[in-house]
Amino acid sequence: MKVLRRALIFLGPPGAGKGTQAREISRRYGVPHLSTGDMLREHIAKGTELGRRAKPIMESGQLVSDQIVLEMVEERISRADCAGGLLFDGFPRTLAQAEALEKIFEGHHLGRPLVVNFVVDPELMFHRMSGRRTCSQCGQIYNLHDSPPRQPGRCDICGGALVQRPDDREDVMRERRAAYERQTRPLVDYYQARGQLFNLDGSKDVESVRRDLLALLDRAS
Ligand code: AP5
After folding, report:
1. How many helices, marked H, and strands, marked E, lie in the chain?
2. What's the alpha-carbon Rg for the chain, to the nearest Å?
3. Are 215 and 123 in contact (CB under 8 A)?
4. What local confidence, expressed as pLDDT, does residue 113 receive?
């Protein structure tokens, strides 16, 4: 198994393919995949207080408050499995989150995070999100246009039911893209200025993006 011993951040607009690649990279490097979106959806599924607060915000396409997200992240990265490296997917998403993360890392020994920026054209991103289906049991991601399951509605891996995310409706997708432009895109300049950013062409097919990503990680780590 390859060794990472640092934090990776997957940055990019909704539907860019961050989650798809993160699952594979996390397996290959044996590091936890910390998706703040998945963590929030888990809270919603369990009906926690945090989930009840986050649900209407996520379904409107806006970002959940920095405070909620940072509390969740701080708790998660204090666990022992993050000591050898970790992969953030969809975090940080605001300048306040990025600055808070720098402070959090001062107390850890992973060095500076490496940031991979997934670059994808907006129309392709909408096409991908409209076809996305996710396994309700194991989280495997499919696409009805490009990578459908063998049996309609069922996960190839565990047989779980495939579901569509409520925020993959067209009006909500447009709001999510707008929130990205407003609040998350500034992080590209933020990390670029610190020499931590690597751009990745996310518009190629899944295998090609994976190959480019692995080559990038080999060079950068
Ligand atoms: P989150 O769950 O993080 O969603 P997102 O960032 O909007 O990203 P997505 O999961 O939509 O896309 P992805 O890039 O992972 O694409 P995927 O691999 O699935 O956040 C949801 C909400 O939670 C936010 O709107 C916000 O409210 C809240 N939230 C989360 N984090 C937060 C934070 N830090 N602060 C505040 N609020 C936060 O791929 C998409 C589809 O394309 C799939 O069907 C896949 O099969 C397909 N696909 C992937 N790659 C390819 C490829 N190369 N070729 C063809 N198809 C592909």
Report:
1. 9, 8
2. 17
3. no
4. 92
**pLDDT grade for 105, boundaries at 50, 70 and 90:** confident
The CA-CA-CA angle for residues 2, 8, 10, to 5°, reads 120
71 ligand 1 Cβ < 6 A: no
Mutate to test the pocket of ligand 1, among 132, 155, 163 (most ligand atoms within 8 A of CB): 132
Residues 6+ apart with CB under 8 A from 153: 133, 161, 162
**What is the C-alpha to C-alpha distance for residues 21 and 197, in angstroms, rounded to an integer?**
17
Whether pLDDT at 149 is above 90: yes
> What three-state secondary structure class fits 219?
helix
State the pTM of this model.
Answer: 0.94
Q: Which two tokens stand for residue 52?
A: 């009840």
Q: Which residues are catalytic?
A: 18, 93, 132, 165, 176
Q: What share of the chain is helix, strand, coil (3-state, %, to 5)?
A: 50, 15, 35
